[in-house]
Amino acid sequence: MVSNIKILITTHKPFKIPKEEHFVPIHAGREIAFETAKDGSIDQKDFDWLMQNTIGDNSGDNISTKNRLYSECTALYWAWKNYDKIGNPEYIGLMHYRRHFIFNEEYFQNKEKNKLEKALSYISEEFISENYLNNIGLNSENINKICNNYDLVVTEDSDLSIINNARNIKEDYAMTIAGTKVEDFELMVKILNQQHPEFTSLINQKIIGHQKSLYQMFIMKKELFFEYCEFLFNILFELEKQTDFTNYSINGKRSLGYLAEELLAVFVWMKEIDPNIKIKKLGCTLIEYPYADQTLNEILKKGCPKLVEYLFFKLKSFFLNGVEKQINKERYQGIRNQRKAYKKLQRLLSA
Fold first, then answer.
1. What confidence tier does 335 reach under pLDDT thresholds 50, 70, 90?
2. Which of 60, 187, 277, 324 has its CA at a distance of 20 to 30 angstroms from the CA of residue 318?
3. What's the pLDDT at 239?
4. Are 21 and 89 in contact (CB under 8 A)?
């Protein structure tokens, strides 16, 4: 019976923290928190909230100053090198401030999904509320049950063919994520094959397919976690040595973080052929308004136009990132429904 489980929830801004004993909110990039990131920069009030409600990734052995390159991996590295600081758990996981595993599999299967959600194995949710937590089964009982029965938990595989039949994993990397380059993906594969030649055939076969685990989300046994981090950072550090990010865009500079997501998929492929490893794949959520109550109240005070501005910003980013028109059309539906979201926000905060 597993008794010690910790799941890191990475963030760089205030968010609604689900209240469960297993969760450890962690501020990724604390050492350079005030430097401009892809979402702009935070103010002193947000930083104070993060100091009060999360642990930082900038103590002990850390790479916190490299957060603009490594994204949430700076929190991952900190947990690896400072494992005793989170209680030396038997299992460790990683989720995000706006993405959670869905332990209620029936809810995930029955929830209506648009084309993008089907392709990328997630469902959209608006707010983190008690109803939301109950719907997705995000509680200690379900987490304990999963860990008692599996060695490794990751997201359900994508099916990129739903978006574009001709686009495989390698092509999708640079065509979907703004500022990234397919040459970096190719360098990653080259380093992979140099460091793990026994998996060359498997990797080369998989990267021209459409299925992979997504979002750098997992729960795994301690032993697997240490193996994964050794595997991951050996490759990322070599990638950093061989890549000049000087002229990359702000989002492009995060390429090592994006490539880390690809490397988790590779690690899962390696473990899928090991008969001794039991793997569970779950759906996940994408939360539109994952903010702490204080931030939600501020949005509410500013009124409905603020939500319209937020949603149009989201839509604009999808156009700029070169996502297909069909996907933009589905996102536009969210803008048309912004009054409904606004009313839900009012009810949530008045409950």
1. very low
2. 187
3. 98
4. no
